[in-house]
Structures are given as C-alpha cells and as structure tokens.
Write a structure and sequence with these properties.
Length: about 260
C-alpha cells in the first residue's frame, strides 16, 4: 500500500507539468499526497473497520471515503466524485475512471486468496465506479498486487493479467512521446502495469510511470502499488515519503501494515 502512496506523492508535481524523462528528484517541496493517497487510506480504514467480516465492506467504503474526502477537500477529486463525497445518499455513477484502480491496493494486501482480492476490490469499487471498465481496472490492480506479494514472478503476473483483463503490445519507449492524459482505466491501467513490468525496483517503476506523462500521479500510484508488493518498499523511500503524510495518514498506514502486511 505504501508503494501506491509513494507513487502518488512522487508523481503529484508532474500531473499537470509532465516531464517525459526518468532523471528527476523523487521528492521535492512541490510534492504532496493527492486524492490517490487519500482514497487509498480511506479504503484501508474501511477494511480495518470490518475486522475480517467483509459483509459490510461496501458500507464502510462509502463511510470512510466520504469522511476522508471531506477531511481533505482540496486533494484533487474529479467532478462527479466531488459531488458523491458530499451526497447524503451517495449512489454509484457508472464511472470507468482510474480512481477505482488508484485506491484499491489495500484489497490486494488484506485478501487471503486471489478470489478474495477480486471480491474485496468489487465491493469497494461498485459504490462509485460500477461501469464494467471501472470494475475491471480495480480487479486487475488488486489481483496483480495479491499475485505480486504471494510469489509469482513478473512474467507470470503479466500472463494472468493478459489472460483475464488486458492485452497490450506496447513498450514505454514506443508510447512515451505520444501518450496523452487519460483518466480512464482502459487508458491508464495497462500503462501503469507496463511501468512495473519494465522495472527491477519500486523506484524504477515509479520513474517509468512518471516518465510517460499524462495522469502520472495516478499511474504512479497504480504501478507503485504493484511494485511495492513485488519488490518491497526500501527503508529509504519510506523515510523520504513519511514527512509528506500527516499524523492521521501515518497512523492509518501503520495500523494497516501492522494488521496485514507483517503477516504477508
């Protein structure tokens, strides 16, 4: 989960000022957690609140996302989601935006099986992004994280994703100069996956994702979530991102890691 937050924070300063190279400082004073991190932490809290009984996870996801969203109103939410956050009776709005994939990493860590990772992803996603492509992006990301943390190698993870979710035949170098801002799952999740598959570390994954341009805080979060599960989060990156998180964020990361990630 922290890999997703690192990817978001690193990519935040480039979202509207793309830099299509890999030679940049990871963290500067212009970095900040965006809606990607806030909603990831909301999903983490929802899972923690369930205490292993996920029959109420959808309700918890709504409550926690609204609570966190209202606590961090300037995090950069999309228009439809902003309205959803303040709606007293929020309903899903058929979105296929990549917000479903950016926030789902806790599901991949909490699950005890691949099937459960997909089920948890569906529960936290259908409350907003109930379009088939929105569901698909979240499922694929949660599944990739579960497979990454349970021992499959990169090629095996790719084969699973291509068989069940997406098929892509591009490399980062082939699309870097022409890739445009795309907030859809189908236009950003495969690109985030490719950033991971062309890397040998969490840092390289995030640099790959950011160098594509576009919605690079979100592709950084998606790619970083998978890479963090696969490569682990180096202590140096943990130390560097920590000051960007406030006390509430740090407490949620710590509680979630203590509950789920020490067992993984």
């Amino acid at each position: 989960m922290l890999g997703a937050i690192i990817g978001d924070v690193v990519g935040s300063r480039f979202e509207f000022n793309n830099y299509r190279h890999k030679d940049f400082p990871l963290f500067t004073n212009y970095c900040t957690p965006t809606d990607d991190s806030v909603m990831t932490l909301a999903v983490a809290e929802a899972i923690l609140n369930c205490r292993g009984d996920y029959s109420k996870l959808a309700d918890q996801a709504v409550a926690c996302m609204q609570k966190w969203g209202r606590a961090y109103p300037g995090a950069g939410y999309g228009g439809n989601f902003r309205h959803w956050l303040v709606n007293p009776k929020p309903q899903p709005y058929n979105s296929f935006g990549n917000g479903s994939a950016m926030r789902v990493s806790p599901c991949g860590w909490a699950a005890q099986s691949l099937e459960e990772a997909i089920r948890l992803a569906d529960l936290v996603t259908a409350v907003t992004h109930n379009h088939p492509e929105g569901m698909k992006g979240a499922e694929a990301t949660a599944a990739a994280i579960y497979l990454a943390r349970t021992g499959l190698d990169q090629q095996e993870i790719r084969q699973y994703l291509e068989k069940n979710y997406y098929h892509w035949d591009f490399t980062l170098d082939a699309i870097r100069d022409t890739y445009e801002f795309d907030e859809s799952c189908q236009g950003s999740v495969p690109q985030a996956f490719e950033a991971f598959f062309e890397a040998q570390s969490l840092e390289e994954t995030i640099r790959n994702a950011v160098s594509l341009g576009g919605d690079c805080d979100t592709t950084g979060a998606i790619a970083g979530g998978v890479a963090g599960a696969y490569f682990g989060v180096p202590e140096e990156l943990r130390r560097q991102v920590w000051p960007f998180l406030d006390q509430k964020m740090r407490a949620t990361v710590t509680a979630f890691e203590k509950k789920f990630m020490t067992k993984a």
